[in-house]
């Protein structure tokens, strides 16, 4: 083990930019599908402070494991106007004092989040992160906590709303445009009890239309703007975010995750929020941690992953702060779609899945 660590340290020092002038965040990169021993060697060589362990994900065959990482570039850059052009109502809150730490799991003893979810072998992480953010925003806006927290249907987003949009598709993932958030604004989402999630049943089996909660807007947050992301979490609820995963992320068990992937840059478009990512998550809080700050990341890989389904991740690791978004809820109640909307739902009613 000591020889292996020495090898990686020597490799780091001899690599371009690997000497004294290198960024303190620079290090030996993690790759996909590395074994635990190699990951641990790199953690030690880089001086990172987290642990890894085998879990259900690391035991999957490569093909199945890759199927969970299903966020990808689309064939063209769409640039949704709602997200790209304005900070929205968050602008009024920027500059307000923020605490050193905040966590929607415990706000004065009240939890505004439901239990950790498990997406299973379906690449619908986008639906889980969108619903996690939506639930926190709704619960915060309506004063719903603990057993009164709302539970939205990821299946409705992944298997019903996907029939109406080109940016996400059931278990086959989503592109970088966050159209699933546009769907929550335009069509809304029903509750889990109406359409429970089952990764093995991928058709829309609902009798439509159904009552949904609709959100008033969604907005992108500036790339790597820690203060803006904090403000969105504090004043609106959890935010939807994306990450670039690797073998260390998959095997994360505890501690403060870091990987040095901090630069928000897309070589194809030049748009910072198109920095490469392959998985979506929700950020539900933060801790400045004496200058070594981190987000509280909520995943959809079950409670057996990470710290009971959560991860402490450094503010700019894994591209986590490159493409964060927040939802706005204005207090509208559950509503039945009006008759004209039925025309939009005909493809779902006629779907054979």
Any overview of this molecule?
With about 350 residues, this protein is an alpha+beta fold. It has a single domain (about 50-350), classed as Cysteine proteinases (Cathepsin B, Chain A). About 25% of the residues lie in helices and about 15% in strands. The protein contains ten helices and nine strands. The longest helix is centred in the middle third of the chain and has 18 residues, at about 125-140. Residues about 1-25, about 80-85 and about 335-345 have low confidence and may be disordered.
- Let me know the average pLDDT: 86
> Radius of gyration over alpha carbons?
20 Å
The CATH topology comes to Cathepsin B, Chain A
> What is the total domain count?
1
Number of helices: 10
Supply the CATH architecture.
Alpha-Beta Complex
Q: Which residues sit in consecutive blocks of at least 5 with pLDDT less than 50? A: 2-24, 80-84, 337-347
**CA distance, first residue to last residue:** 52 Å
Large-scale geometry: globular
What would you call the structural class? alpha+beta
Q: Report helical residue fraction.
A: 25-40%
Give a brief rundown of this model.
The chain is an alpha+beta fold and 353 residues long. It is 25% helix and 13% strand. The chain has helices at 2-14, 36-46, 62-67, 81-84, 125-142, 154-160, 179-186, 226-235, 247-250, 342-349; strands spanning 49-52, 101-103, 217-220, 239-243, 252-257, 279-287, 294-298, 310-314, 325-328.
